[in-house]
Design a protein that fits this description.
Blueprint lengths: L2 H22 L21 E6 L6 H17 L5 E6 L4 H13 L4 E4 L8 H9 L4 E4 L9 E5 L1 H16 L8 E6 L5 H14 L4 E7 L5 H15 L6 E4 L2 H13 L15 H9 L5 E4 L1 H16 L3 H7 L2 E3 L7 E6 L1 E4 L5 H5 L6 H4 L5 H6 L4
Parallel strand pairs: 1-2, 1-3, 3-4, 4-5, 5-11, 6-7, 6-8
Antiparallel strand pairs: 9-12, 10-11
Helix pairs in contact: 1-11, 2-10, 3-4, 5-6, 7-8, 10-11
């Protein structure tokens, strides 16, 4: 990602944040209150929420409950969320989307299993007059808006932090394994591109895998192949696109007899990953503020269906392109590299986890060693 593009995104995110804050104060005459709702759609609305899978615990633990609470708070507890999880099946998600169209929900938040395959369903929703907001992954088809994190920047953060873990002597003699995400997920391609922009020319990518369905067991099997080909003692670091796969990678390394684990990246700040970071089994994760993404997505959905055009515009100040449509209104949420040094300032400070959740009896001494108590 060019510095110019990153600067544009940063300015856009800042502008969106400022505009939303002003809207909340009534300065833009587009408050989060339900009192000035459009006469055509009041508070008795249904938001359809389609999430992609359960292997990544964030969807069940954070995204769904946060969106549900926010929709209820924005509608004086009159609005509801109709929720379905596809469990990594594109066919199942297509059926779930069709069911929501048949049920005549008012707006759909869609986190696509397969961004290309779902395009026909998005078109059906559009034809039925139901707005579709792409959530976390940019779906194809005539979507009305998109909210996610700056995915290429996620990969850059992962790659840059991995080089820092290897140290100043990182060179082409250092062999890296890349465990990328699912080839059907457009975010995975962006994570990979961002990481390669940092790693290429500085280390050697000895093995690279696109991991089907993001499944930890698939990552574990891929890692076993990499170890067999490269040699367990010749792996300088492992790029893992998310935390679930990082867990599978650790299992593969341990099964191969590796006791001094190489630096391993991750993403999503899952609780087991945070605990692995504390013990040194995983070097870092990328913390993405799910409350911010989920709450803003709920605001976008409610604003769209209630005709709050100014508030909706304030929440979607950026523009992105999909393979089928250009200039899609969007919001890109910033990210943070999560390491031992900033656990307290990120996931604890944001109430994602309590210290008691992280520092259980098994991890008590490791927590105390880094000042988590």
């Amino acid at each position: 990602m060019s510095s110019r593009m990153r600067r544009r995104i940063s300015i856009s995110v800042a502008a969106a944040t400022m505009s939303v804050t002003l809207a909340g104060c009534g300065v833009l005459n587009a408050t989060g209150s339900s009192d000035d709702a459009s006469p055509t759609k009041g508070n008795d609305i249904t938001v359809g929420l389609l999430l992609p899978e359960t292997a990544n615990t964030r969807y069940e633990n954070f995204d769904y409950p946060i969106i549900k609470r926010k929709v209820e708070s924005l509608t004086n507890d009159k609005g509801r969320v109709e929720y379905a999880n596809a469990e990594a099946s594109a066919d199942k998600q297509a059926s779930q989307l069709q069911q929501m169209i048949d049920d005549r929900v008012d707006v759909i938040l869609l986190d696509a299993v397969d961004s290309h395959a779902i395009a026909g369903g998005v078109q059906k929703a559009k034809d039925a007059g139901i707005p579709v907001i792409a959530y976390d992954r940019l779906a194809e088809g005539p979507i009305d808006a998109y909210i996610s994190f700056d995915n290429e920047l996620v990969g850059e953060v992962q790659g840059r932090t991995l080089l820092e873990a290897i140290g100043e002597k990182a060179s082409l003699s250092d062999k890296i394994v890349m465990m990328n995400g699912s080839p059907t997920d457009p975010n995975a391609k962006q994570f990979k591109a961002g990481a390669l922009s940092e790693l290429n020319g500085k280390v050697t990518i000895a093995q690279s895998f696109d991991t089907k369905d993001w499944k930890p067991e698939n990552a574990q099997a891929n890692m076993a192949k990499a170890i067999e080909k490269i040699g367990r003692d010749n792996i300088a670091a492992v790029y893992s696109a998310n935390d679930g796969m990082a867990g599978g990678i650790v299992k593969a390394l341990e099964a191969a007899g590796v006791t001094d684990l190489p630096p391993i990246t991750g993403q999503d700040a899952e609780l087991p990953a945070v605990q692995r970071i504390i013990t040194g089994d995983q070097y870092m994760s990328v913390y993405k503020s799910y409350p911010q993404e989920a709450e803003n997505a709920a605001e976008m959905a409610v604003a769209k269906v209630q005709g709050r055009d100014i508030q909706f515009a304030a929440l979607t100040r950026d523009k992105v392109d999909s393979p089928t449509h250009k200039g899609i209104p969007a919001q890109l949420v910033p990210v943070v590299a999560l390491t031992k040094e900033n656990i307290k300032d990120t996931v604890v400070a944001d109430d994602i986890y309590k210290l008691s959740d992280i520092c259980t009896a098994k991890y008590k001494s490791a927590c105390e060693a880094i000042g988590l108590k």
